[in-house]
Sequence to fold (153 residues):
Amino acid sequence: MNIKRIIGLYGSKDKGKSRTLYLLGKLLIEKGAVILRSEGISEDFFNDDPIKENGTACDFKALFTLNGKTIGITTQGDNEDELNLNINFLSSTWDIVFSATRTSGKTKDVLIKFAKDNHAELLWVKKLYLNDSSLEVREIGNEKQAAELFLEI
Fold:
């Protein structure tokens, strides 16, 4: 029996959590994943044309399937209401979930409760952020972290 896992990508506002999870979704598509259900995704959402440089342009909810696993990705985890909407979207049909969340407070509490309610392992991953870097350098960091998250699948 596989244990469900939730990975909370945490960090303060505007540090690239949504962008990193967008890049993870894009990587899933490149590896052959199929979108089962989504919100906020158009047919060409993951084509990066033009590049989605900020959080709001990258926000989405989706369930993917790849290699027999159902993977959920939800951005917009900066407050309790958004995170509850994400949880309602996911239902219980997933093997692993990646969710944006803040560094403390109610969003962490919501994710902890979601994990308990689903008998899931909860892992916290800190969003890497390079403060005084150019957009290009920050993007390299986002891509690296998305690739590392992909290894959790």
